[in-house]
Specification:
The structure holds 2 protein chains of 2 kinds.
Chain A: H1 2-21, E1 24-31, E2 41-44, E3 50-52, E4 58-62, E5 69-73, E6 80-83, E7 89-94, E8 104-106, E9 112-114, E10 122-126, H2 127-131, E11 149-153, E12 162-166, E13 179-182, E14 185-187, E15 193-194, E16 197-198, E17 211-217, H3 220-223, E18 234-239, E19 249-261, E20 301-303, E21 309-311, H4 317-324, E22 328-341, E23 344-356, E24 363-376, E25 381-395, H5 407-413, H6 420-425, E26 428-429, E27 434-435, H7 447-453, E28 456-472, E29 477-496, E30 511-537, E31 540-565, E32 576-601, E33 605-616, E34 625-635, H8 637-640, E35 648-662, E36 674-676, E37 681-683, E38 686-688, E39 691-693, E40 697-698, E41 706-719, E42 724-743, E43 752-775, E44 779-796, E45 805-808, E46 811-814, E47 821-827, E48 846-855, E49 860-870, E50 873-883, E51 886-888, H9 894-899, E52 914-915, E53 931-932, H10 933-942, E54 950-952, E55 955-966, E56 979-994, E57 1022-1032
Parallel strand pairs in A: 1-7, 13-18, 40-43
Antiparallel strand pairs in A: 1-4, 2-3, 2-5, 5-6, 8-9, 10-17, 11-12, 13-14, 15-16, 17-18, 19-22, 19-57, 20-21, 22-23, 23-24, 24-25, 25-28, 26-27, 28-29, 29-30, 30-31, 31-32, 32-33, 33-34, 34-35, 35-41, 36-39, 37-38, 41-42, 42-43, 43-44, 44-49, 45-46, 47-48, 49-50, 50-55, 51-54, 52-53, 55-56, 56-57
Helix pairs in contact in A: 5-7
Chain B: H1 2-17, H2 25-28, H3 40-54, H4 56-68, H5 85-88, H6 90-110, H7 117-138, E1 141-142, E2 159-160, H8 162-179, H9 197-223, H10 225-231
Antiparallel strand pairs in B: 1-2
Classes of the chains: A mainly beta, B mainly alpha.
Chain lengths: ~1050, ~240
């Protein structure tokens, strides 16, 4: 009976239990800031019962019993198991995962993916890397920090451009510039260079403090969904939307750095001003820019251009820099207000930037207003958007970098015994209004004259933004539509001042001088839609996206110019004698449809395929359309294979293949246009119009898009509980059907013809490693190193095998050789390599043909960051390097230094008064001819014998040091201050190793890849020192 | 089910939106600021100015400037350098792209146009004059296929012998000068003789005289070496055969 009673009780309880099992558990999942997490997977462990959270983070699920465990998982967050117990509501806070492998990456088109599912290499840059130790250009800050991204910040002034290359060059011509995407929308990064000044690029509009994160998509596979313009990778910038912090918040950031010119010259100061070994003893001719005078000794004097007799003593470049340049400053103040709640948030940021140049009258100011918002207007509909307005003014951007009349160039080339103070005093003759002759070589303009009378104003107003509406049709399906626009209007005007000695004499009644005005309007509009579906069937997950994009871009430029003026000092068009005007409007459109599908198996094997079709307006109707696919795979072997040891925390293999098409021609390349000269031409019967073909390139109406095919493989490893991380990617990228501007016979009436012919290969690897050798409570040391290697080969250039070489601007593309060959006239040599000198004069003899002198693209580059954290004090040191490329340190640098006798290489022979070149004569006899010193050295510069000016462009630099600490804990208990971080920073600290003398090896200013040579900037490299203050309220 | 319907509708709308994937592309790819036709007399002016202004006159001036002035270019200014390859190559590099391609274009454009008959003849004369300088400078040069890079897509024109060139130049000068008709329309807007047809006729015949003399010298070169030495007094162009 007792047994029966017990059984009954048991059954009763069992029955009750069954009743209890039917109950529903509801709950809410939020992140550690209390914001709802949408789409969190909630599974009952060991069953197939599951659900996901809704837009408010709520879920409801039926559990079998109190012992049931809920498994919660969400991309980017640490998974959690929760035992239900007796509770009816379960509120869960999920923590963001700190492990790299769970990182969420913003991929093409702004689609967020878990990084482990990606079959290609990406790099994520965080905000601190961007803002703490910055240079004036947003990307310049990242030099050496991002694996596989080759960044060069030009030495051209406070708003100079940056050159960014990912995985080498995909095309012979054009800029090979990665696509720049802000908040999912491509923006324009055109670099402007007018009137011999670098006016900066599109990145200048962005305030680094507004950037929340940046992702670099390196290969074609990553970028496939962005299509044609992403053939060189994509840099995706996300600005804030207010959802980063909970509730109302204010952040204030101040960044101040001071900048000083660094003197890298190593000039001779033994011989002073003069020529052919004689110092000037009369006022004219005074040599001014030549330092081929007499040996400097105490008590000696020289006569200057103004008949003044002054001591014959050397002035060092350092002293000149001190006198001519100032300490520049860069100051950015950003204040941002954000608010976020259950249904969304916003972030409004206001910023003011003022960067002064070391050049006394030059500065760059920028004002930014940035608004980002996201709002759920109903359970199913979300509206989000970003608007960025910038107002930029670049005043007197340093003129003529690499130009002989540039003030920056003259400072360095001026004879080493010329006192600078007199130059300032005697810059202009008040009677004639002309520059006073100070040098026998007139194109070297007095730097103070230029500084006083030259002007250059570049204004830009830019508004870029997008509005997106996302509709969650069902839990698994969403539809998104977006409209985006990048619009700017530029006004630029600049002069060449009246009174320059190298100006042509104007007709009677006029004074010389030039004035130019350029107005430019740019608009790019993108309309796109996206449909996304995701669903899980047991072990197999499906995630598919389809969409389309309409891109329309137009750029309109109106320019006017005037030469010679009626009234001196009045720089207007109507005051001019010879006027010119031009107007251009270019429009292009690309329409695209695309789709992507990802299939996952047991969350360790991921396959992703994309397909995209583009239609280009620039090409003929029959060639407009191009379809290209990509397929990527990712295999998490650490999860899949049981025999992988414990110490392998995470291991992933990647493999992908992708194709991308592109129309890299400018609009209207299919038509041969005529042009008419601005001015009538005077003839015997009166003035008449003059016109003819505009271009010397033969138009081609049947061009096809080029195609890039890239294969990529890689491995991602995290060892010893993530203490060691290693990533390696190999790629091989082939570009076919490149549109080449092929040289043709001049006798055809043209110089080039556009054809589809080129084929080239770019391959290499990127690898990065993170190690934390020491990790204790009070001290952490971590090393983060990256290295990339790239090499390339030209495979085909023309329609026949005979087409084995073309020149593109200043470089040669040669079949079988890496891209960007440099070929120069060098000193002639005999069969055994002896240098040949002329038997009669003793001067060097120039080679009959141009000789291969190197290549202009680096093969190795990377950086090593050491970070030390001592009780919260963080010291970070970055060393970076770039190796393998060569250049000619030409005008504006060593060529001019040599020519003017300041280069130490021009010293030998001066003591005895002759030089005997070490080598042979043309007949093979040893050269014994004593040559005159100055003409001997000038034979190199004058005849273009480039031997003394070709150098390895590589370097090792101590790029950055920063020291930071969050002082918040020392503050008295003020609730509203949440953080107070101060960092002391220094940029471009020191050059550890370089090969080129007298200059910073990075002091170049070439945006594209084909005109590197000769484009050396004489604007001195600068070192910055400053601080960054970040206060959070 | 209702949601799926919505979804399908959206998808359909979007697809329709993108159906014609290159709608308006022809219009977009038509320049709104550049022009594709030009009055042939403006072109003739270009050909004339380029030969006169940028041709040998400037070259001589430049060389004189270089030799005498210490304030020359950055490469040569008083540096006692005599290396001047750009100037030796100048006529070849410039004349084809300015005068030859332009006169070829004018001739194509006006050949059939009776109202521009005098302009057509003037262009033939100017073309002949341009080639006279070219062949006098270099000897054999591209002639029959020259200047046709765009019209015929001929990018590697064949070289013609100097003799063949001269024969044709003389024929052209003869025919064109004879065909110029002062009674017909003036070449208004022309820069060299203000469109005066009689002057063009005179110019054509003068060139014919000069050309015939040159050709005679060339022919003499073939007969004996001694004569050749005397004849070939011009710079390295005229070939001695």
């Amino acid at each position: 009976m007792r047994k029966i009673a017990l059984m009954l009780v048991f059954l009763l309880f069992a029955g009750l239990q069954v009743v209890l099992a039917q109950r529903t558990i509801t709950g809410k999942v939020s992140d550690n800031q209390g914001l709802p997490l949408i789409g969190v997977t909630v599974l009952v462990k060991g069953t197939t019962i599951g659900t996901t959270t809704d837009l408010n983070g709520n879920f409801s699920i039926q559990v079998p019993n109190d012992q049931s465990t809920l498994q919660l998982s969400y991309v980017g967050y640490t998974a959690q198991d929760i035992v239900v117990g007796s509770q009816a509501t379960v509120n869960v806070t999920m923590a963001e995962s700190s492990l790299m492998m769970d990182e969420v990456v913003v991929t093409a088109l702004g689609i967020k993916r878990e990084s482990k599912t990606l079959g290609y290499a990406t790099a994520v840059v965080n905000q601190i890397q961007l803002t703490e130790n910055r240079s004036s250009n947003t990307m310049g800050t990242l030099q050496g920090k991002v694996s596989g991204v080759n960044i060069t910040q030009f030495g051209t002034g406070p708003a100079g451009s940056t050159r960014i290359r990912i995985r080498g060059n995909s095309a012979f011509q054009g800029a090979n510039l990665p696509l720049l995407v802000i908040n999912g929308v491509p923006i324009d990064n055109t670099r402007f260079q007018e009137g011999n000044a670098d006016l900066g690029d599109g990145l200048n509009s962005i305030n680094p403090d507004d950037v929340q994160s940046m992702t670099v998509l390196k290969g074609a596979a990553a970028a496939a969904l962005y299509g044609s313009r992403a053939k060189d990778g994509v840099i995706m910038i996300t600005t804030r939307t207010g959802m980063e912090t909970k509730g109302f918040g204010v952040t204030y950031n101040m960044n101040y750095t001071s900048e000083k010119a660094v003197d890298y010259t190593d000039f001779q100061y033994e011989y002073g001003q003069g020529e052919r070994g004689i110092r000037p003893t009369t006022a004219f001719p005074t040599s001014g820019v030549w330092s081929f005078g007499e040996k400097i000794a105490p008590g000696m004097t020289q006569t200057l251009f103004n008949n003044e007799v002054v001591p014959y003593e050397a002035v060092t470049t350092k002293d000149r820099y001190e006198q001519f340049y100032r300490t520049a400053s860069n100051l950015t103040n950003t204040i941002s207000f954000s608010n976020s709640g259950e249904n969304g948030g916003f972030d409004l940021s206001l910023a003011n930037t003022k960067n002064t140049a070391i050049l006394k009258n030059s500065d760059f100011t920028r004002k930014n207003i940035t608004l980002g918002f996201t709002q759920n207007i109903s359970k199913w509909i979300n509206i989000s958007g970003n608007v960025n307005y910038s107002n930029e003014y670049y005043k007197n951007s340093p003129f003529g970098v690499g130009n002989q009349s540039a003030e920056v160039n003259t400072i360095a080339t001026m004879a080493n015994t010329m006192p600078l103070s007199l130059m300032e005093q005697y810059k202009m003759d008040p009677l004639t209004g002309k520059e006073i002759i100070w040098s026998r070589f007139l194109p070297r303009v007095n730097p103070y004259f230029m500084q006083a009378y030259r002007f250059d104003n570049n204004y830009r107003d830019r508004l870029l933004g997008n509005i997106a509406v996302k509709v969650n049709v069902t839990k698994d399906i969403y539809v998104q539509g977006r409209i985006a626009q990048d619009f700017y209007s530029r006004r630029h005007d600049y002069n060449s001042p009246t009174g320059r000695l190298d100006a042509a004499t104007p007709p009677a009644g006029y004074v010389d001088g030039q004035y130019n005005k350029v107005n430019n309007t740019f608009r790019e509009r993108n309309l796109d839609f996206l449909v996304g579906v995701q669903h899980t069937f047991g072990n197999i997950g499906l995630n598919a996206t389809a969409g389309g994009n309409q891109m329309f871009r137009s750029s309109e430029t109106e320019s006017q110019g005037a030469q010679d003026f009626v009234q001196p000092g009045l720089y207007t068009i109507m005051n001019g004698r010879q006027k010119s005007a031009s107007h251009s409007l270019t429009e292009r459109a690309v329409n695209s449809i695309y789709g992507a599908a990802e299939i996952s198996y047991k969350s360790y094997l991921f396959l992703n395929a994309t397909v995209r079709n583009d239609w280009f307006s620039t090409l003929a109707p029959e060639n407009r359309s191009i379809l290209y696919p990509s397929i990527t795979s990712s295999f998490i072997f650490s999860d899949a294979l049981e025999f992988i040891p414990e110490w392998v925390s995470f291991g992933k293999l990647r493999l992908s293949y992708a194709e991308v098409g592109d129309d890299n021609v400018s609009p209207y390349s299919d038509t041969q246009f005529y042009g008419l000269n601005s001015n009538l031409f005077a003839g015997p019967g009166g003035s008449v119009p003059v016109g003819g073909y505009v271009s010397t390139t033969i138009a081609n109406p049947s061009l096809r898009p080029l195609r890039v095919g890239e294969i990529e493989g890689g491995i991602d490893l995290r060892l010893f509980n993530n203490k060691v991380g290693f990533d390696f990617a190999y790629y091989s990228k082939k570009t076919t059907d490149q549109i080449v501007s092929k040289q043709v016979s001049n006798a055809s009436g043209f110089s080039t013809q556009l054809i589809n012919a080129g084929e080239s290969l770019s391959k290499g690897f990127e690898s990065s490693i993170q190690v934390s050798p020491v990790e204790t409570k009070s001290f952490t040391w971590s090393i983060n190193a990256n290295i990339a290697y790239n090499t390339s080969e030209v495979l085909k250039l023309g329609l026949t095998e005979a087409d084995s070489v073309i020149t593109v601007n200043n470089v040669y593309q040669v079949v079988g050789k890496p891209l960007g060959q440099l070929r120069y006239y060098m000193q002639a040599t005999d069969a055994s390599g002896n240098k040949i000198f002329d038997a009669n004069s003793g001067y060097p003899v120039r080679s009959a043909n141009r000789i291969v002198a190197g290549r202009n693209l680096p093969t190795w580059f990377g950086g090593i960051t050491n970070t030390f954290d001592v009780k919260g004090v963080i010291l970070s040191v970055l060393i970076d390097f770039k190796l393998g490329d060569d250049y000619v340190s030409n005008f504006g640098a060593n060529h001019d230094y040599w020519r003017h006798g300041k280069h130490k290489g021009t010293l030998p022979g001066r003591d005895v008064g002759y030089v005997v070149g070490e080598g042979v004569n043309a007949n093979g006899a040893v050269n014994t001819r004593q040559a005159q010193v100055q003409p001997f050295y000038e034979a190199y510069t004058g005849n273009g014998i480039e031997d003394p000016f070709i150098f390895k462009a590589g370097f090792w630099k101590l790029r950055q040091i920063s020291l930071g600490y969050d002082f918040v804990k020392f503050l008295p208990k003020i609730d509203y201050i949440k953080g107070l971080r101060l960092s002391i920073v220094s940029n471009n600290v020191a050059i550890i190793k370089k090969w080129v003398p007298n200059m910073d090896p990075e002091n170049i200013f070439t945006f594209d890849d084909t005109s590197l040579t000769g484009n050396v900037s004489a604007y001195p490299a600068t070192r910055t020192l400053g601080f960054n203050l970040n206060v959070k309220f | 089910m209702k949601r799926i319907k919505i979804y399908l509708t959206v998808l359909l709308t979007v697809t329709l939106f993108f159906t014609s994937c290159d709608k308006d592309f022809d219009e977009i790819n038509t320049s709104k600021t550049d022009f594709i036709a030009l009055d042939p007399v403006f072109k003739l002016n270009k050909a004339i100015i380029n030969i006169m202004e940028m041709g040998d006159r400037v070259q001589q001036l430049q060389i004189a400037y270089w030799l005498t002035s210490p304030f020359g270019s950055s490469l040569a200014g008083a540096n006692y350098n005599q290396y001047t390859p750009a100037f030796h190559a100048f006529p070849f590099g410039s004349f084809y792209q300015s005068s030859v391609v332009t006169t070829v274009d004018i001739i194509n454009q006006t050949k059939e146009d009776a109202t521009r008959a005098n302009l057509y003849q003037a262009a033939r004369i100017w073309k002949a004059y341009t080639f006279m300088i070219l062949t006098d400078t270099y000897g054999d040069v591209p002639y029959t296929e020259a200047g046709k890079g765009f019209t015929d897509q001929t990018v590697r024109p064949v070289y013609d012998s100097q003799q063949a060139i001269y024969t044709d130049i003389l024929k052209e000068l003869d025919e064109a000068s004879a065909a110029l008709d002062p009674a017909k329309t003036k070449i208004s807007g022309e820069i060299l003789f203000a469109g005066d047809v009689a002057k063009w006729k005179k110019f054509g015949y003068s060139l014919l005289l000069r050309g015939s003399n040159e050709a005679a010298e060339s022919r003499c070169c073939k007969s004996s070496d001694i004569c050749c030495q005397g004849c070939c007094r011009r710079i390295d162009g005229v070939k001695c055969r």
